[in-house]
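Before a colleague's protein record goes any further, I have to sign it off. Would you go through it and say whether the fold makes sense for this chain? Take the sequence as given and treat only the tokens as open to question. The record follows directly below this note.
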Amino acid sequence: MARAGWPAAALALRLGVNPASIAEVRERRARLHLDLALRIRRLHRELISLDPVSQGIRPADAARTRTAAARRATRP
């Protein structure tokens, strides 16, 4: 979702969790409860085809999120 430009805070708000929880999931550090994993999957299906800016995310926030995701992808 980060590569698409969805900030952790926006995802956390939609899921009803703390943004730190989203960061842990992105970094693959979290062990998820089944309920949260299913909610994340549903949200992914719902949002992946949408442009974050068209959904109220500020363009700068979406760009910053994409850049950070690209950096994480190139980390060893």
Observations:
- The longest helix spans residues 59-74.
- The chain has one domain: 8-74.
